[in-house]
Design a protein that fits this description.
Length: 201
């Protein structure tokens, strides 16, 4: 398959062309696993040849990883850690951004999870970085810059639950606010036994 001859080729800068190709991949990722994306289809939609696509991404795998990385960055952009507020308020902001993104873009996120489950080492690395970054933001919100190993493990496990609940929650019966409140309160209860005991008077 080659670029559509009826579609005029638009000259873009290298950065803009890469962004365009990644954007097409993100859109297609909604309907299929990452390994089923057709670079021929992507190139045709962009109005370029398959060979030119490989000028910007040396291999198909490089392109797939770039698409997954861009999807992860979009999520992180919504789950920002505010600089001010109480620990609970800051945790709530991250959780609300994360769960809201997942619920609004469920198909995209499920496709991203499916890509991470595909077993490609580079894709798994990107997905692992995404989850680790979310965990670090939660720990920073809690005021735990150097947490005990069990605290870090508990937060990672709680995030896995939050992810699953955000994917599976029925928007008609559970609102995003209800889900966020449940998750934030649940994190408090989970970590309470791990809090250092007050020194004896």
């Amino acid at each position: 398959m080659t670029a559509d001859p009826a579609r005029p080729r638009v000259r873009l800068s290298a950065a803009d062309r890469r962004g365009q190709l990644i954007g097409i991949g993100l859109r297609l990722l909604v309907t299929r696993p990452i390994h089923e994306l057709s670079v021929d289809e992507v190139a045709a939609e962009a109005g370029i040849s398959r060979g030119l696509l490989f000028h910007y991404f040396p291999t198909k795998r490089d392109y797939y990883v770039a698409v997954v990385r861009a999807a992860g960055q979009r999520l992180l952009g919504h789950a920002r850690l505010p600089e001010e507020g109480s620990p609970k308020e800051r945790v709530r902001a991250v959780v609300a951004g994360f769960t809201g993104f997942v619920r609004r873009r469920r198909a995209n996120y499920v496709a991203l999870v499916r890509a991470g489950a595909g077993g490609d080492e580079k894709v798994l690395e990107v997905f692992g970085h995404l989850r680790a970054t979310l965990a670090e933001r939660i720990l920073a919100a809690l005021g735990e810059p150097d947490p005990a190993p069990l605290v870090r493990l508990a937060v990672r496990g709680w995030l896995a639950m939050a992810e699953e609940m955000a994917i599976e929650a029925d928007g008609g019966s559970v609102t995003t606010d209800e889900l966020v409140d449940f998750l934030v309160d649940g994190l408090d209860r989970l970590l309470a036994p791990l809090a250092p005991a007050d020194p004896a008077p």
